[in-house]
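Continuing the series of single-chain predictions for the mutant panel. This is the parent chain; the variants come on the following pages.
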Amino acid sequence: QVQLVESGGRLVQAGGSLRLSCAASGRSITNWRIGWFRQAPGKEREFVATISWIAGDTTYADSVRGRFTISRDNAKNTLYLQMNSLKPEDTAVYYCNRSPPDDAYWGQGTQVTVSS
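Parent structure:
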């Protein structure tokens, strides 16, 4: 089984930057497509960005394209989300999961709060 643990979220002012991390442990995820998802208060969870672990090709939601960058470190088995030019509407709990998401891998997430 694979365990995914998110970290890096905090309170930040609008226009600021954050880098989220997702540490993977357990069996190999080199054949995964993996991504970041977020859920804002009162809203459904939504896709943010995905990356193919082995190929490195990426996809982004329109709302974050040009501001967020997804990447992975093979040696550390860690997924990242660099978030720049943050907006209050980016406030949410951010999760990493396989793409398409698998209910077996939802973790606690990490809270990102962007103040205006």
